[in-house]
Specification:
With 82 residues, the protein is α+β, with helices and mostly antiparallel strands. The chain has one domain. Helices cover 32% and strands 18% of the residues. It is built from three helices and five strands. A hairpin with a 4-residue loop joins strand 4 and strand 5.
Length: 82
């Protein structure tokens, strides 16, 4: 899942985020395979929901706005994670 917010909220480059937040290597590498980490920004601070511009999930080999995933498919998606 990824959340889009203004750059003023996500002030860390991905490499800076990893430097200060323990992230298992397998997870870090798997996430990096789904995009270009040099284009990512991150934060380790709470983000007010009012600043969220988009919420997307990796579905059928692409990033999809969460509201565009059918409810039953999203339920199966969540089951795969647990």
């Amino acid at each position: 899942m990824r959340v889009g917010v203004p750059a003023s909220v996500a002030t860390l480059r991905w490499s800076d985020y990893l430097a200060v937040n323990a992230t298992p290597r397998l997870m870090r590498d798997a996430v990096a395979d789904l995009g270009n980490p040099t284009e990512w920004l991150a934060t380790d601070q709470p983000v007010p929901f009012r600043l969220v511009r988009s919420i997307e999930v990796w579905y059928r080999d692409e990033w999809v706005e969460v509201s565009n995933v059918p409810d039953d498919a999203f339920d199966r998606y969540l089951e795969l994670d647990g």
